[in-house]
Design brief:
Shape: globular
Bound molecules: nicotinamide-adenine-dinucleotide
Helix content: 40-55%
Oligomer: single chain
Radius of gyration: 20 Å
Largest sheet: 7 strands, parallel
Low-confidence stretches: none
Structural class: alpha/beta
Distance between the termini: 26 Å
Number of strands: 14
Order of helices and strands: HHEHEHEEHHEHEEHEEEHEEHEEHH
Length: 377
C-alpha cells in the first residue's frame, strides 16, 4: 500500500455497498422473487458476479422472508471462480456444471425465473470461438425456451425468462440513429468477424418473440450497453480491465486504437438493477436497452480519467501510449459510437441508473486493487 491509498475503501466494501444498492433499487423485484427458484445460466461470469450475489445478499438481510433459491448453471470453461467457491456452502445456492448447448439437466427441478447469460461476451474470445458463441445464443437459448414450454405443459408456472441480447445487435448505427432507441433495426454485417455474436443475438431475440407469442410465456430481452465494474476479470481483454492491468502492473496504459470510438459506460450495479427489473416487470416479447445515456466519452477520454483516478488513488505514474493490436480483426466492424435511449426501461420499469462515471471507475479501480490475480477463472 502506498501513502496515496491509505484509509480508502477495500474491494469488499465496494462489493457490499453495491449489493445493498442493487437490493434497494430493485426491492420490489427481489420481494417478488422471494421464495422462488431462480436459474442463472452463465452465472460464473462478469454479470453473474452481482446477479448471483444480489439475491443471496437479499436473503441475508431479509431473514424473516422465504429465501430466493439460486441455481447457477455454467460450463465453468475458465474454471470455478474463487468468489463462487467461497459461496458453495450457502444453502440457497446450487452450482451445476452444464453446457447450455445441451438440453437442461433432467434433474434440474422446477425453475420459476430463468436468466440466460451463458455466452462468450468478450470480442477477443468470441472471434476465437465463433461457433461456440452462436451455439450458446441460439441452441442454448432454444433448450431453455423448450424447458419453459414443458414446464407450462406440466402446469408449473414460469414467472419470467430473461435473455441477454446486446447493444451489438444495432451494429454500427448511422449518425441519425445515435442515441439509439429499441426501434432501430440495426446496421450489421452478417459475415464479418463480429457477426457470430451480433447475428446470434439477433436470432435469439427472434426466438424469444415467437416463443413468447406462440406459448404465451413471459420471455423478455435485455440489450446491455457496455457494462463495467466488479466481477469483470482483469484478464477478460475488454478495455477497462486491460487498462487496469497496465495500471496495476505499473506500466504505461496501452491504447490499441486511436481512442476515438465513443461509448457510454454503465456501472454494473446500475445495470444489474435494470436486469432484475426486465426479468420481473418487462413485457413479454419485448426488448429493453439497459445502459446510461450520458456521458458519451471517447476511449481516449476514458483512459485519461482512469489514469487521473489511479494517480489520485494509488500514486500511479504511467501515461497513455498508442500501439497497434497484434489481432488484425481487433477493430473490424467496431462501432464508432454507441449510446442508448433508455426511456422505455425508465418509464415502463422505473429503471433509473445513478452511479456517475467517475464514481463507477473509482469503485472499479478499488475492486481491481483487491482482485489483481490474472487467473482465468
Ligand atoms: N458485459 C457486458 O457489457 C455485456 C454487453 C452486452 C451483452 N452481454 C451479454 O450478457 C451475458 C453475460 O455477459 P458477461 O459479460 O457476464 O460474460 P462472461 O463471459 O463474463 O460470462 C459468461 C459466462 O457464461 C459461461 N458460458 C459461456 N458459454 C457457455 C455454455 N455454452 N454453457 C454454459 N456456460 C457458458 C461462461 O463460462 C461464463 O461464466 C452474455 O450473454 C453477454 O453476451 C454483456
Amino acid at each position: 500500500m502506498t501513502e496515496a491509498n491509505r484509509g480508502m475503501p477495500a474491494a469488499e466494501d465496494v462489493v457490499n455497498t453495491d449489493l445493498d444498492y442493487i437490493n434497494a433499487e430493485a426491492a420490489e423485484e427481489f420481494s417478488e422473487l422471494s421464495g422462488k427458484e431462480l436459474l442463472i445460466a452463465g452465472g460464473a461470469g462478469f454479470l453473474g458476479y452481482y446477479l448471483v450475489q444480489a439475491p443471496l445478499n437479499w436473503n441475508r438481510n431479509h431473514g424473516g422472508e422465504a429465501p430466493i433459491k439460486v441455481t447457477v448453471l455454467d460450463n465453468f470453461i475458465r474454471g470455478v471462480p474463487a468468489w463462487l467457491t467461497a459461496l458453495e456452502a450457502n444453502p440457497n445456492l446450487r452450482l451445476i456444471k452444464h453446457d447450455i448447448t445441451n438440453p437442461l439437466p433432467a434433474d434440474l427441478g422446477d425453475m420459476e425465473y430463468l436468466i440466460h447469460g451463458a455466452s462468450i461476451a468478450s470480442p477477443t474470445f468470441y472471434r476465437k470461438y465463433p461457433i461456440e458463441t452462436m451455439d450458446a445464443n441460439v441452441n442454448g437459448l432454444r433448450f431453455m425456451l423448450e424447458y419453459a414450454v414443458a414446464q407450462k405443459r406440466k402446469q408449473k408456472a414460469v414467472g419470467g425468462i430473461l435473455f441477454y441480447s446486446s447493444s451489438e445487435i444495432y451494429g454500427d448505427p448511422t449518425p441519425d440513429n445515435i442515441p439509439t432507441p429499441e426501434t432501430y433495426r440495426g446496421n450489421v454485417s452478417c459475415t464479418g468477424p463480429r457477426a457470430c455474436y451480433d447475428e446470434s443475438k439477433r436470432y435469439g431475440e427472434t426466438l424469444c418473440v415467437h416463443f413468447a407469442r406462440q406459448y404465451e410465456l413471459p420471455i423478455k430481452v435485455a440489450r446491455p450497453f457496455n457494462n463495467y465494474g466488479p466481477g469483470l476479470k482483469i484478464t477478460d481483454r475488454r478495455v477497462i480491465p486491460d487498462f487496469a492491468r497496465d495500471i496495476f502492473d505499473g506500466r504505461d496504459m496501452v491504447m490499441l486504437s486511436d481512442g476515438a470510438a465513443q461509448r457510454t459506460f454503465c456501472y454494473v450495479a446500475d445495470a444489474v438493477v435494470g436486469y432484475y427489473k426486465v426479468l420481473v416487470k418487462g413485457r413479454p416479447g419485448e426488448a429493453y436497452n439497459v445502459g446510461v445515456e450520458t456521458p458519451e466519452i471517447s476511449v481516449a477520454e476514458l483512459a485519461r480519467r482512469l489514469a487521473d483516478l489511479s494517480r489520485e488513488l494509488f500514486g500511479y505514474t504511467g501515461q497513455v501510449v498508442f500501439k497497434a493490436s497484434a489481432d488484425k480483426d481487433y477493430l473490424v466492424d467496431n462501432p464508432s459510437r454507441r449510446c442508448p435511449i433508455i426511456t422505455k426501461a425508465r418509464t415502463e420499469l422505473g429503471y433509473d441508473p445513478k452511479v456517475t462515471i467517475d464514481d463507477g471507475l473509482r469503485r472499479s479501480l478499488l475492486w481491481y486493487s483487491g482482485n489483481r490475480e490474472a487467473s482465468d477463472a
